[in-house]
Design goal:
Elements: H1 2-16, E1 20-26, E2 30-37, E3 42-43, E4 48-51, H2 58-71, E5 78-82, E6 86-87, E7 90-91, H3 106-114, E8 118-122, H4 123-134, E9 143-149, E10 153-159, E11 162-164, E12 173-176, E13 179-182, H5 184-187, H6 189-194, H7 199-217, E14 221-225, H8 232-235, E15 244-247, H9 254-265, H10 269-278
Parallel strand pairs: 1-5, 5-8, 9-14, 14-15
Antiparallel strand pairs: 1-2, 2-3, 2-4, 6-7, 9-10, 10-11, 12-13
Helix pairs in contact: 2-3, 3-10, 4-9
The protein binds beta-D-glucopyranose.
Length: 279
């Protein structure tokens, strides 16, 4: 009897988890995860957030991700967004987490410990995928550039919904007070807070940044996401750009949703190898 109960529970959870992938968003202050229904883009369970370990070394972060995977008793593909350039699951830059991430095969690192196949994607790219499928850009099929404005300044370029990864235009150099500075240090939300900028001052820097990126990449539409999107009423009217500008609609869910999309669609070659090793 007990066994029948157990089996039906397993069956029920398999049925309810159909089309569902675990998405994880690695940030400077929190690592957040949730199973995502890829048909609707909705969270399938309650999100879990664990503070990012300090120092945020690769092994400490992998350990936290493994806690999230255990929490959801997750078996199956996992998608993971990381704030840096990612090629084939390996981290190439790490502006806001520990430098020792550079060169680390994050997909393999997670797979080795958890036994699950993992796809890793840049966090802004993840948010871009999510907004184009389920959010502000769902009706748009041209060239769109999403800018996430939070601790970092992340960008994602999408053409007809297809991602061209690792744009990273948040680190372009901009002229400021006769010096060249990293755009992130002027236009990220962390810069606005740290330098106690008025919305007018921040919007001036951000507009300059948008126009600069527009001249380089020529998107037809920008989507502004990240933590700042919640305060759109404060800054949208101040932004000056000869291009359509929309506000992201998925709020802080976009990173997790897009990571789940990547987990479902990215090749898992390296991670499968790791899975064999773990068996
Ligand atoms: C990183 C990007 C990331 C962005 C948002 C930047 O500092 O270089 O890779 O997408 O922050 O987290």
């Amino acid at each position: 009897m007990e066994r029948v109960g157990y089996l039906s529970l397993v069956l029920m959870s398999a049925v309810s988890r159909k089309n569902t992938i675990l998405g994880i968003d690695i940030g400077g202050s929190g690592i957040k995860g949730c199973p995502v229904d890829l048909k609707t883009g909705e969270f399938a369970e309650e999100r879990l957030r664990i503070p990012t370990p300090q120092p945020a070394t690769p092994m400490a972060v992998v350990e936290t991700i493994s806690q999230i995977i255990d929490h959801f008793k997750w078996k199956g593909p996992v998608g993971c967004g990381f704030p840096g350039v990612i090629h084939r699951n390996t981290v190439f830059t790490s502006a806001n987490l520990d430098d020792s991430f550079v060169g680390f095969d994050l997909g393999n690192g997670i797979s080795k410990i958890t036994g699950q196949p993992v796809g890793v994607i840049n966090d802004a790219d993840a948010a871009g995928l999510a907004e184009m499928r389920f959010g502000a850009g769902h009706d748009f099929d041209g060239l769109a550039l999403l800018v996430t404005v939070g601790t970092g300044l992340g960008t994602a370029l999408l053409y007809k919904g297809e991602l061209i990864p690792n744009m990273e235009t948040g680190h372009l150099l901009m002229k400021h007070k006769h010096k060249l500075v990293d755009a992130e240090s002027l236009a990220a939300d962390s810069a606005r807070r740290a330098q106690d900028m008025s919305w007018e001052t921040w919007a001036k820097h951000f507009s300059k940044y948008l126009n600069y990126v527009h001249a380089l990449v020529r998107p037809e539409m920008f989507i502004i996401g990240g933590g700042i999107a919640k305060k759109a009423d404060k800054f949208m009217k101040l932004i000056k750009c000869d291009c359509e500008v929309r506000v992201a609609t998925l709020e802080n869910k976009a990173g997790i949703i897009g990571a789940a999309v990547a987990g479902a669609e990215m090749p898992q070659a390296t991670s499968r190898k790791a899975r064999k090793k773990a068996d």
